[in-house]
Write a structure and sequence with these properties.
It is a single chain. Helices cover about 70% and strands about 0% of the residues. Helix 1 (about 30-50) packs antiparallel against helix 2 (about 55-70) and helix 10 (about 195-205) runs antiparallel to helix 11 (about 210-225). The chain contains 15 helices and two strands. It has helices at about 30-50, 55-70, 75-85, 90-100, 105-120, 125-135, 145-155, 160-170, 175-190, 195-205, 210-225, 225-240, 245-255, 260-275, 280-305, and strands at about 5-10, 15. Among the domains are: about 1-25, no CATH class; about 30-140, Serine Threonine Protein Phosphatase 5, Tetratricopeptide repeat; about 235-300, Serine Threonine Protein Phosphatase 5, Tetratricopeptide repeat, CATH 1.25.40. The chain is elongated, with a radius of gyration of 29 Å. The protein is mainly alpha-helical. A hairpin with a 6-residue loop joins strand 1 (about 5-10) and strand 2 (about 15). It has a two-stranded antiparallel sheet with strand order 1-2.
């Protein structure tokens, strides 16, 4: 038999005739089109496991595919997403960097790499990736990238740059809610409560239904002494997430400040029930006790005057 008519199985090294589709010893596919069909089948199985959160199986399948196709950038990206869900950030970063080595213009991989670096507090590295992404010559609006860069600059204390990037994100996509929320936070920190409220409302109108935006909107109204709007928005924040501690805490504080002590006690009781291990409730209880003593003293003085 001529050597040209023989092929070696790359898995078990057994010699096969070249017309064999599978290795007779280990059943490994010998033809590329069969390997591609098998990879497509495995990808379908992996997606099924992913839908039911069986991530170990997903990792096993994707790693097996990469042993066959190490330069399959999309599989590396998908595997990185699974590792991210598992909080295995080092492995996620490794596969994203490999995907970018294969395809430097893989915008989803670079965006995800920057997101993970920012999550880990590696802000300078994240900025490099985000700004590299902005220079990528691929058709993409990048409004979210400008917003994310703004978030990093805000965390680094460079408020001017942060505001500039939020505004750029809005100019690219005026219906992108997050930069309005972030601008609202900057305006709030500056004491410009009218501008903060306007930006928070814009974010809400654009369907940013998160408890943080209602909590901060409530605080901005409180700063303007608009108590009814403040209470309404804090209660809305709680309705969106009944384990959002900040809204409960702020709600209790406002009730204490306006001397609605029964309502304050109700909120404090809920905090103690939902967050039994928080020490912050001690401050609320002391504040409530102080207000109760002040109220009792006023009542005693009033009674003395009447007599």
């Amino acid at each position: 038999m001529e050597n040209s008519r023989l092929v070696e199985c790359p898995k078990c090294k057994t010699t096969n005739q070249e017309n064999y589709n599978y290795c007779y010893n280990c059943a490994y596919p010998l033809k590329e089109y069969i390997k591609d069909k098998e990879i497509s089948r495995l990808m379908g199985i992996a997606l099924g496991y992913e839908m039911v959160n069986i991530f170990d199986k997903v990792v096993e399948i994707y790693e097996a595919i990469l042993r066959e196709k190490p330069y399959y950038a999309d599989i590396r990206y998908r595997l990185a997403l699974v590792y991210e869900v598992q909080a295995k950030y080092d492995k996620a970063i490794e596969h994203l960097q490999e995907a970018l080595n294969i395809n430097p213009d893989y915008i989803q991989a670079r965006n995800k790499l920057a997101d993970i670096l920012a999550t880990l507090g590696k802000y300078q590295e994240a900025l490099i990736e985000y700004k590299t992404l902005l220079a990528t010559k691929v058709r993409y609006s990048f409004a979210d990238v400008y917003n994310n860069i703004g978030v990093i600059y805000e965390k680094l204390g460079n408020i001017k740059q942060a505001k500039s990037y939020y505004m750029r994100a809005i100019s690219i996509n005026p219906r992108f809610a997050k930069p309005y929320y972030n601008l609202g936070n900057i305006m709030f920190a500056k004491g410009n409560y009218d501008a903060a409220i306007a930006n928070y409302k814009k974010a809400i109108n654009l369907k940013l239904e998160i408890p943080e935006v209602y909590n901060n909107l409530g605080l901005a109204f409180y700063k303007q002494n608009n108590i009814n709007e403040a209470l309404e928005n804090l209660q809305k924040a709680i309705s969106l997430d009944d384990l959002f501690f900040d809204a409960y805490y702020n709600l209790a504080l406002i009730y204490i400040q306006i001397n609605d002590l029964n309502k304050a006690q109700e909120v404090i009781d809920k905090i103690k029930q939902r967050f039994p291990y928080t020490y912050d409730v001690i401050y609320l209880e002391k504040s409530l006790q102080k207000k109760s003593r002040e109220k009792l003293k006023r009542e005693q003085i009033n009674n003395m005057e009447i007599e």
